Amino acid sequence: MKRRVTIASALFVVSMAVLYQVGCGSSNAAPTAPSGGGGGGSAAVVITIVGMNGNQSFSPDPANVPAGQTVAWKNTDSITHHIVMDGGGFDTGDIPPGATSISITAPSGAVSYHCSIHPTMVGGFNGSSGNNGPGSPGYGGYHGGH
User: Which of 3, 33, 54, 94 is the most buried (most CB within 10 A)?
Assistant: First the structure.
């Protein structure tokens, strides 16, 4: 009887260890290619993920990213994030802590995005056809609020 208890205990411990490895722990996967197209290499604009702070989760926010330029997200937070454009258009894939997403090409017009893992994390960029910033004619910047 004691031998059955010992074997059952050993199986339980091994099972729990396997489940922990599969279900817990952080993702070490590299960021995936965005679904909205983009390129490799360095991005012209890098937006920093600063943490789960609602509409202050990204810096700068809004970012000045002219249409056609590349943009990437640098995760300086301690947890994984996954940035997607509201309504579709681009998807960075998972961005582990310390990693930078693959760069995507900015579409034209105002762009709102959020973290699909933490939907209260929201941000935006202008996607203008020129190098216009806030206060400039033609600025189509994100004006917050979700």
Answer: 94
How many structural domains does the chain have?
Answer: 1
CATH assignment at residue 99:
2.60.40.420
At 80, is the secondary structure helix, strand, or coil?
Answer: coil
CA atoms within 13 Å, Cβ hemisphere of 69: 20
Identify whether 87 is part of a domain: yes
Pairing mode, strands 70-75 and 122-125: unpaired
Q: Which pTM value belongs to this model?
A: 0.62
Residue 11 is assigned to a structural domain of this protein: no
Distance CA 93, CA 98 (A): 14
Q: Is residue 38 one of the residues assigned to a domain? A: no
Phi and psi of 47, rounded to 5°?
Answer: -100, 130
* Of 92, 110, 111, 109, residue with least CA distance to 101: 92
pLDDT tens sequence across 61-71: 999 999 999 99
In what helix (H) or strand (E) does residue 92 lie, and over which residues does it extend? Answer: strand 91-95
